[in-house]
Amino acid sequence: MEIFDLSNIKQIEEKYDKELGQTKFWDLTETTYQTLNNISYNLYYVDQTEEMRIDIICNNIYGSTDYIDIILNFNEISNPLNIKSGDVLKYPSSSDIESLRYRVESKDVVKSLLNRNKAPRKDDSRKKYIDDNFSLPPTVLPNPIEPVVQEGDNIVIGGGLFNS
Length: 164
Description:
28% helix; 11% strand
């Protein structure tokens, strides 16, 4: 059984697997299905022997289990174990299946996201904030400021945050 959704997102490039030290690398951002409004569909009534068995249902409809993803996507089913007896499933004709599958030729966006040579950006305004002796949260300053201080009858919250 080959499920298009899984084989389409399988591996981006083998070099990324080696670079990241992984044996499998799945691109879960990959779109594999597109909704089209002009597709006609047929109805399939699930019986008791087919509960939670999308593979049997798909085989009964198409004579193959290669279109499980189409049935699940077409009916917006995220968990095939929720299919119960009496459910009515919509399914497209065999001739419309390929038009519902979404194929991407280039994965340049994913490659750019996987670039591990990203240098951190310097935040000049943050450096100026520290150089001008403004306070930062206690976990950042070398000498932490108490977040709440009682001065006589006054309670000061965030003392020194806005003083120069």
